[in-house]
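Q: Give me the 3D complex with manganese (II) ion.
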Amino acid sequence: MNEILRPFDIDFDLTTGLSRLKKASKRYLSNMADMFYDTEKAGDILKNEDPLIYEFYEMGIPETVGDIAFGTSIVYPGKIGNEYFMTKGHFHTVLETAEVYFCIKGKGYMLMETPEGQWDAQEFAPGKAVYVPKRWAHRSINVSPTEPLITFFAFRADAGHDYGTIETKGFRKLIVEKDGRPVVIDNPRWS
Amino acid sequence: MNEILRPFDIDFDLTTGLSRLKKASKRYLSNMADMFYDTEKAGDILKNEDPLIYEFYEMGIPETVGDIAFGTSIVYPGKIGNEYFMTKGHFHTVLETAEVYFCIKGKGYMLMETPEGQWDAQEFAPGKAVYVPKRWAHRSINVSPTEPLITFFAFRADAGHDYGTIETKGFRKLIVEKDGRPVVIDNPRWS
Ligand SMILES: [Mn+2]
Ligand SMILES: [Mn+2]
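A: Here is the predicted complex, encoded as structure tokens.
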């Protein structure tokens, strides 16, 4: 072990999820327009504005098997058509690595699936921790009309992110609003 | 990978740190009387009562290199003599594994040291995350006179706990109250 990492702390605001000390990575609609199933609606919105869908922190923890990467994720309230604002979602490059998410504010779901076709959705609410086992792709979805969905996440720092699989194939399921409430539907564009 | 672990969630109360679904592991003064430096004071207290010092959750996550163990830790307010209530503290058995603690309530410190004799203390306050790098023993200390210190922790699930080294040798440093505020002092009983 050559890298020298001293203990450190970092401040997050429990109300906004944001840190004063560090810059968040931001994902706007233009960064993920193809990931919402109503691509026409996404295109319409982009003619006038480019809403911030979510942001999250990368701490720059050394990517070793013994380190833990962590940070907060903030998914903003909103919809593209009837599909809620969400993260891109990803598998871990080291597929056999898990992750835990601890919700501190908001209301939503963690949508998950395996390469073998299993799927699952677990609810986020303040104080709820969701465990994403090894092999499960995961996407956070904010179903509140007003509040950000704020989670604190931790995973093995060498896990890596495979965004490409989801960008190409999509998730098998979507969570959309129907009659004012969230429902899970088959992804009409899943391939 | 043979164990089959489905996604799951678990509820913690953000005000108490406790879960309604799961039983916490409790540590009373009688479980750790020798760990406070004023053992005489600890003995006096134990004649009349056995205060709950801290509790924490173990989720029963499979202890593999790809899983993440997590839970909340609640250290109650109080002192033994002038030494604040604290956790036993431990090294990880797999020494080259890190841990992250995310404070959701209270005020305190994470006291840390390496086998080589380095030490460090990082402050806990709501929203602060403390990173415990590989090789660092760690102990949570509550310096609030009234509030519990509540943290959410995550570490590699196969890390294991070596409590024995600290039970035998102690930490090199202690955090005690002096003139109404916390100060770091040398541990008079460190061996
Ligand atoms: Mn992940
Ligand atoms: Mn630990």
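A quick observation: The mean pLDDT of chain A is 96.
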